[in-house]
Amino acid sequence: MAEVVIRRRLVIRGRVQGVWFRNATQRQARALGVAGWVRNRADGSVEAVFEGPPAVVAAAVAFCHEGPAHARVDRVESQDEPPEGLTHFAIHENGEDGPPFST
Question: Sign of torsion, CA 90 96 98 101?
């Protein structure tokens, strides 16, 4: 039986740029074994995509609700998407990859 894989896109708002949020997210994602990417957005938020088993994605999402030590997370917007089969986790340059988050 194939393992269930889900995909979740987040937009994290607050003091999340300039506080090593992307690097900390990448370290956490790699430690968990979740695939995806993270990037800064022009509006000052951080966007992240996680793909993997539900429990692993949930752990990555939980990390984003707290962030690294110097971050202040005010709000996390989340939306489920169809998995794309990502196999690693990367930091993308600002504005690179992924459609804009829709609410």
Answer: positive
